[in-house]
Specification:
With 331 residues, the protein is of the alpha/beta class. It is 47% helix and 17% strand. It is built from 13 helices and eleven strands. The protein is globular, with a radius of gyration of 19 Å.
Length: 331
């Protein structure tokens, strides 16, 4: 499997650049950067920093959305990163989440998401596009600079069945937010494969599973950091909670306390969750725990595991990245 790291642009530019540079030096293959409107710094500026501080890692948005940025402007933005990085960009896109609410928007409908991907691909080829799409319009729109690549990979962030099936139909890859336990992952893969079959494709898109949490021999600290992302699932993807053994009653209690959004807002709701559930949904432990999750993903044919360090201090998150890199570098 390939290995990756996902970050928020929440660090100052120099610290961010150092983290990214070290991540590549330690051997990680992919960098993914969140695009969360007012919740952090501007993702494309920080992807530029990453492009200039690395030479090998792929650089992706995780994820942008077609609501806060017109689909054509999103296509230009990632094409610019692709040029700066000499062909290493990945266009990660999704419907959007709670950060949209602060701007007066709701998440994109699947039709808008699908048409946004088609628009980007057509523009990357140099085509002049006139199109009344579902949710936006293009009128003789074309990129007036030559794109570095007409086939920038497009990854869809997905949890729910309809989005997973869309990803199976049209995406080059999937950013999979389904926890880390085999039952939930199989459920997601089945829906991706349905989309693959609908489109008559010959193979499944690349799958990158995002593993949120902390890697540490201090299991109590790691568990505390992982609790908040575990509380995210009852609100946004309750089907994975039931598959992981959480009762419907407890799911509703967590949903009542946490509506989704920034993980630190989930602290009170997270206290309700049993430890076993947290372990199934997130990273919470040392090397043995990480290796167990890697074995699960490899057994299911997953292509990449991306660690998203959360909780604790900047130093502890940096330590999580290094620990993951050390683990995957060893047989």
């Amino acid at each position: 499997m390939r290995s990756g790291v996902a970050l928020q642009p929440a660090y100052d530019p120099d610290t961010f650049g150092d983290i990214v540079q070290k991540s590549e030096e330690w051997g990680l293959d992919e960098l993914w950067l969140t695009d969360s409107s007012l919740h952090s710094r501007y993702s494309y500026s920080y992807l530029t920093i990453a492009a200039l501080r690395t030479t090998r890692m792929t650089l992706g948005t995780a994820v942008t959305n077609p609501v806060t940025r017109h689909p054509a402007l999103g296509a230009v933005a990632i094409s610019t990163i692709d040029e700066i990085s000499k062909g290493r960009a990945i266009y990660g896109i999704g419907a959007g989440d709670r950060p949209l609410e602060a701007l007066g928007y709701k998440p994109a409908r699947l039709a808008l998401l699908e048409d946004s991907i088609e628009a980007a691909r057509r523009l990357w080829t140099g085509e002049s596009v006139s199109w009344q799409a579902r949710g936006f319009e293009l009128d003789d729109a074309h990129m007036r600079f030559p794109p570095e690549r007409p086939d920038i990979p497009v990854y869809i962030s997905a949890s729910g069945p309809k989005t997973l099936e869309l990803a199976g139909r049209v995406a080059d890859g999937v950013i999979l937010l389904a926890g880390l336990h085999p039952d939930g992952l199989r459920y997601a893969l089945e829906h991706i494969d349905r989309g693959v079959d609908m489109a008559g494709r010959s193979e499944r898109p690349q799958i990158s599973v995002f593993a949120y949490g902390q890697i540490s021999d201090d299991e109590e600290a790691a568990l505390a950091s992982a609790r908040t992302i575990a509380a995210w699932f009852p609100q946004t993807a309750p089907m994975y909670c039931e598959l992981a053994g959480l009762s419907k009653d407890l799911i509703e209690k967590v949903r009542a306390l946490y509506a989704g959004g920034e993980f630190q807002e989930a602290e009170e709701a997270a206290k309700l969750l049993p430890d076993e559930f947290v372990y199934r949904m997130a990273l919470a432990g040392g090397e043995a725990t990480v290796r167990e999750h890697i074995a699960t993903l490899e057994g299911l044919g997953i292509d990449s595991m991306t660690v998203f360090p959360i909780g604790g201090t900047v130093e502890s998150r940096f330590s999580t990245i290094q620990a993951y890199a050390d683990i995957v570098s060893q047989p």
